[in-house]
Amino acid sequence: MTFACRFPRSQHLVGVVAVITVACNSGGTGGSPYISTDSGFDAGLRSGFWLKGDLHAHSLHSTDALDSPVGDVFAKAEELGFDYFSLTDHDNHVQGNITTWADPAYRSDKMILLYGVEWTSGRGHANIFGTKPYDYAPLWATHDAGDGATAIAAAHAQGLSFFINHPASKDLWECGFDLDFDGMEVWNALFAFVTSNSVAMTQWESILMSGRRMTARGGSDSHHQKDLESMFFNIGNPTTWVYAREKTAAAVLEGLEAGHVSIAYAPGAERLDFTADTDLDGRFETMIGDNVLGRDGKMIRFKIDIAHPRAGTTYRVAVLKNGAPFDNWESQDTTLTFEDTPAAASRSHYRVELRGPTPEAPPVSAGAFGDLIGLTNPIYVSFP
Ligand SMILES: [Zn+2]
Ligand SMILES: [Zn+2]
Description:
23 strands; 11-stranded mixed β-sheet; 29% strand; 6-stranded mixed β-sheet; 2 domains
């Protein structure tokens, strides 16, 4: 395979094309039509919405968050412009008798609400989400033994989504990575300060390399609205963007499980978008989380868009292919394209990371945020 980037780094790039091979065959695709409704490209291909929110947060229904009434957290979430939200209080702090959902303040006229709990076992933590309150007893029954496999089966039996949390933190995930969970938290709180995030990213890539599609999501794990912690970060750090076909809780969970997910360091930050034109018809019909079939060994054109950009910002954009650095640019441009021909008769996956200034971070903790603005889930090629 030959590689020739037409433009050097640090050059202002418009529609940069990094030509990897020139095998220009057209053919079928398993990708789905796609539209991004808030940035205007490829209108008409797929209708839906990028929705932002936080999938990991605590309130006074957790005994380590007693200074955070539900109403305060919800007011903050609405102030930040969240489209969806879920509290995920610790199950063991209420002995499995989930009290969060019955709190009169667990309501919103502005946000889509999910119903979450943090399965807080001695062998790992996980957030379990539903579109409405659910029977937690079967989940609680697995808590003491830290039986992840049975917990996941119990969640799925009720149609719930099971996402493991901070898998490499001090409360690490010890139940195994070959279990049937629906996704994992790779970005917990501040990316650079919680060094386990980089380990979680490595674990995620290992799963992807094994040939399993796996949604990566963020979660602030915010516990406090009033004390010191809230000066350093709050809900929305990071923010998880989910592409949903409609503005409902079911569509949010559907988009989440499908991997239509982009993560950003803050609610007001840039959102990375990543699409592909797999049949070279000029329409970028494939989006993050899609699995392209029948295009291995054939050229695919990819496009990176930075939604909600900041004027005058120089961004560092990196593409990772199969877990390894593939290409990168330093540019003020907000749209970049490149091409590649994934190897024939094998699977490939591509994802994007965006680095640069993080002015939405509180100055007191900007260093702990690091320079990671956002990251995408992969576009998959020829995965099972
Ligand atoms: Zn936890
Ligand atoms: Zn937590």
